[in-house]
TrEMBL record, chain A:
Coiled coil: none annotated. Residues 1-22 form the signal peptide. This is ABC transporter substrate-binding protein. Residues 39-252 form the SsuA/THI5-like domain.
Automatic annotation (TrEMBL), chain C:
Keywords: ATP-binding, Nucleotide-binding, Transport. SMART domains: AAA. GO terms for molecular function: ATP binding. Belongs to the ABC transporter superfamily. Residues 7-239 form the ABC transporter domain. Transmembrane segments: none annotated. The keyword Membrane does not apply. InterPro entries: AAA+_ATPase (IPR003593), ABC_transporter-like_ATP-bd (IPR003439), ABC_transporter-like_CS (IPR017871), ABC_transporter_ATP-bind (IPR050166), P-loop_NTPase (IPR027417). It comes from the Bacteria. This is ABC transporter ATP-binding protein.
Amino acid sequence: MMSKSTMLSGLGFALTATTALAGDPVTYQLDWLPGGDKAPIYVCVDQGFCADAGLDVTIASGRGSSDAISRLAAGSSDIGSADIGALMAAKAQEGVAVTAVMSVFNKGPHAFYTVKDSGFDSVADVKGKTVATSPFTSSNVYLPLVLEDVGLTEADFELTKADAGALGPMLMTGQVDGIVAWMTDLSRYTGQGRDAGKEIIALPWSAAGLELYSASLVANDAFLAERPDVAKRFVAAFKKSVEFCQTNPEDAAQSVVNMVPELAKDDVLGSLNDTLGLIFNEVTEADGLGVFEPGRLAATWTRVSQAQGLDEAAQVPESFVTRDFQPGGEG
Amino acid sequence: MSLSMPDFSQPESTKGKRPDLRRILAAPGVAAILTILGTVALWELAARTLNIPSYLLPAPSSIFSTFPSIGAERWAGHVWATLRVALLGFGLAIAIAIPLAIALVRSPALNRTLYPLLVIVQSTPVVAIAPIIIVVLGAGDAPRIVITTLICFFPMVVSTATGLAATPPELIELSRSLRAPGFREITQIRLPFAVPYIFSALKISVTLAVIGAVVAEFCASDAGVGYFIQFSTSMFKLPQAWAGLFVLAAMSLALFQAVSWAQKLLFPWSLPRKR
Amino acid sequence: MEIPAAIRFDRLGQVFETGSGRVEALRNVSFEVARHEFLAVLGPSGCGKSTLLRMIAGLLEPTSGAVEVFGRRVTGPREDIGIVFQKPTLLPWATIEDNVVFPVRHKRGRVGSHDRDRAQELLRMVGLEGFGKRLPDELSGGMQQRVGIARALHMDPDILLMDEPFSALDALTREEMGFDLLRIFGERPKTVVFITHSVSEAALLADRVLVMTGRPGSVLTELPVPVARPRGRETIKDPAVTELAAHLRDLLLQRDAA
């Protein structure tokens, strides 16, 4: 099983050809490249939760939430992960036939990373600093909101764009005072900082009041309508995998490495641990795992519509999600 | 990174009396290999003595140590994924470019109407429309092949058309005076005369095909050397990304050489004569 | 019934429309070439000599007047005409033999053993026996031009058009080629129109020399060569030939000075 999945993902093009598992075929769309923050879907396949649910899952990597949503909308993938803010914007603007079925991150992963004791110790300190961000991250959308919350505008600091891979080195070499990156990369950046003799800290925007749902499980509407049973089984298996990641992070990281040997286990584990805080926290304790709590969902839409300049009243927040496919859901 | 260009001025024959150092150095490839080895050694030395952080410029030793840790099977998978797309895209480009060039040379009307269109297509950055192509053509190799083809077909059209038009006019008059069928003017005169032009375009295009495949992998893929580099960069595994770059460079060089060999083997007369 | 001339130009005129305006290349050109006659055409550069050949071959339509070949007006390319160009323009990828049979392959798509036998015979005739399997760039310029002549003769045309065929060769080779032509056409007579810049070449080879004026090209005069055939190496020293050459040179120099 393990060696088979190893080989299959290595010969990525052959993935679609596999019929060995003979379950219901499901194509899972990542919103980025494989990594520890994407551990649940690898756990689902490698630990056999997907197969136990009668599912034969193929994983396709993506290049950002918008890319993932367009591929889900085009039907080349069935279900996958994407930022619910990006989904809300895409539905409001383009009416894409994709709907969120389960929340995964109930906090935004967005953060500033800075060097400790450099005078950039809170989000408000960004005033007068130079900050780098990557061109396509969804964080850019929320940046004006978090600035507004601390009484600043984009005119109060200098923002430069650079490739995601260049952000770390730019921070380490002092070319910029801070970078915009996700909390899921905390251990990677701190590790990189250690190598460079710098102590890196993260300033999560949620700490500045940006409370919203983020990465979610989203699905093609036709998939949900035509194969509701498969969708339900998938959501249940996925949820089980998320819980497995929390209880057995070591094994979860191993599952990722089994399927993607290009990754080092320590890196995966670090990223997974950084990610778990966005999935399991006080919000999860109050509402439960995977839940879209109507109030927080509405608040998320308020934030997204503000950030994107959309008409908030034109959409009902509930129209972005369906709760019918979660275990114990209606329908 | 030092990628030495293939030596075009290489003396083809080294007929001499006794082997000496100068002749060994002049042998095909030796100078190139020595240059590469020297650069790598200098690089390693610099990385160690100057203490350059690995996220800026990893030492060659740390780059090469990533090769075994990935494993031959994985490498083969990535190389094959990129090679397959590059070669299919390259093949499709040839299949489109040569008939198109023939049409352009045969028909002045097409030349006036189609050529500007081709220039517009060429000046559109494929990188910018690649995501659209991927959404339209969906998963699988098809969008990547199309992107590769778009990137590498234009030099072939231009060069082939130039070659077809550069045929000695006397032979075209001979063909006309014989009242031979028009297609034979293409197959027996123009195309063979265009062979040197076509091959110089093929050499450029085959390396463009690798670039095209990588661009496509940056936009969408789950395998391939370009994907591997992007993936490694996003994981901050810079030495691993560099290893991927080396593999890409080696692939480009190998394909370039393969085209040169194909020309030598199939059309020896089309090469500049050694005297 | 009168036997028609092999080639007849009747008040022919040619005007080219170029990017920079109209260029009158030929004006009121009339002359005849008899069957098996060797006509040399002399004239300053740009007097439209090559244009004359293209009209005989049917590759170019005259603006006014007409060209007749064997009594029939030329309206398109005809097969009974062979052309030898200024440069040999052989196919570099094909062997010498394949180059000689090329017109057959190009016209019919295939080559029979009879065609190859004929190529061998022609190569023997032009002094290239045993070179059939070589490639063109293994041969000297003079040898390549002999291949060009063999190629032009392969379909056994009635008329052979030669457009300054030796102008790219060195003086000695050029003389040799002239004697070879005399021998070849001694063996099998052809109607030849031979364009040249060389007065001595014209006087040595031709039955008649047509001298043309500069642009627009027209016929200045026609002079017979008063030397009997067969001719050979000694012909070049024949007073009649040297005298004619001197006269031709004077004619051309006068034109240039005018």
